[in-house]
Every structure is written in structure tokens, then in C-alpha cells.
């Protein structure tokens, strides 16, 4: 089983600085995306901004639990991003994403094995470790989508 340091490293890898599994990460994929590209709609696909908001929604919601708060997030609201109408809006979203990603990884890094194995909010959600691993897998899934959408925007033909 993975300990907290390994889980935190995997989180940082997909969100902030790694290249091992996907040869990229969110920070790299989002760094050169303009706000117009981030909000550009391609068919019925989610936008890059929508996917970024979605992953950050879960980061922030689970982080709130890590910090002693309640589990207040609901799946049905996870794509309800506020309008992005400027470079500043997009940069604020990216800054919040990076801040939450680092805070999340830092919280995980400090968890004991006992906390990782403890029930997360309610038995139906499993333990902390399962939720952290689920967030990592979920993040990789949407990272792939963001990467493909970027290619579709930059190379439309």
C-alpha cells in the first residue's frame, strides 16, 4: 500500500510537476492556454475551462474535509463554472487550481497510515486512501481530455 508521501508525489505528478505516466501534467497543459482557447467549445465536448473547474471542484471539496470541514460538494454542481470572460478570470481560475493542488498534496503528505485507512466522511465513500487514489485517477482521465481538446483547438484539421 502506498503511504502518504507516495500519494502526495503522485498528486503533484499529475497536477503540478510530473511527467512519468502521461509525459505531461495539468500545469504544463494549461500554461499556454489563452482564456479564449479555454472557453472554446468543440462539438459536445467539455471546454478546457470546464474540465479545469471540474477537477478543481473536487480538489477544493475534498480539501475542505481534510481541513476539518464538511463534505459539501455534489456531483451535479461539478461543471457549474462561473463565466470566464477575460484573461484575468482564467488566470484566477488557474491560480486557484494550483493553490488547491499544492494544498491538497501537502495535506496528504502529512497523513498517517491510520488516517489514510480511516473512513472518509461516511462508510459509503470508503477510506481516505481510496478517495485520494480516485482523485488521482479522475485527474489523469480529464488530463487526457484536456490534452486532446488542446490539439483539436491548435490543429483543427
Outline the structure in words.
The protein is an all-alpha fold. The mean pLDDT is 93. The chain starts with a helix and ends with a helix. It contains seven helices and no strands. Helix 1 runs antiparallel to helix 5 and helix 1 runs parallel beside helix 7 (128-154). The chain has one domain (4-154): Four Helix Bundle (Hemerythrin (Met), subunit A) (Up-down Bundle), CATH 1.20.120. The chain has helices at residues 4-17, 26-31, 35-38, 48-66, 87-109, 113-116, 128-154.
Count every helix, treating DSSP H or I runs of 4 or more residues as helices.
7
CATH topology, by name, is Four Helix Bundle (Hemerythrin (Met), subunit A)
Distance between the termini: 45 Å
Main β-sheet, in a few words?
none
Shape: globular
Q: If you compute it from the alpha carbons, what radius of gyration comes out, rounded to the nearest whole angstrom?
A: 16 Å
Q: Which helices and strands, and how do they pair?
A:
Blueprint: H1 4-17, H2 26-31, H3 35-38, H4 48-66, H5 87-109, H6 113-116, H7 128-154
Helix pairs in contact: 1-5, 1-7, 4-5, 4-7
Which characteristics define this entry?
Four Helix Bundle (Hemerythrin (Met), subunit A), mainly alpha, 0% strand, 157 residues
Outline of this structure?
By secondary structure, this protein is an all-alpha fold. It is built from 7 helices and no strands.
Amino acid at each position: 500500500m502506498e503511504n502518504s508521501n507516495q500519494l502526495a508525489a503522485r498528486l503533484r505528478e499529475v497536477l503540478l510537476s510530473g511527467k512519468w505516466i502521461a509525459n505531461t501534467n495539468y500545469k504544463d497543459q494549461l500554461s499556454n492556454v489563452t482564456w479564449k482557447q479555454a472557453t472554446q467549445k468543440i462539438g459536445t465536448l467539455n471546454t478546457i475551462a470546464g474540465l479545469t473547474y471540474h477537477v478543481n471542484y473536487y480538489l477544493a471539496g475534498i480539501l475542505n474535509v481534510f481541513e476539518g470541514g464538511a463534505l459539501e460538494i455534489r456531483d451535479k454542481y461539478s461543471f457549474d463554472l462561473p463565466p470566464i470572460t477575460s484573461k484575468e478570470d482564467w488566470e484566477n481560475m488557474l491560480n486557484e487550481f494550483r493553490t488547491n493542488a499544492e494544498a491538497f498534496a501537502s495535506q496528504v503528505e502529512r497523513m498517517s497510515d491510520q488516517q489514510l485507512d480511516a473512513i472518509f466522511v461516511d462508510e459509503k465513500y470508503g477510506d481516505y486512501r481510496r478517495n485520494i487514489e480516485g482523485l488521482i485517477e479522475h485527474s489523469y482521465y480529464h488530463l487526457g481530455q484536456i490534452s486532446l481538446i488542446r490539439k483539436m483547438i491548435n490543429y483543427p484539421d
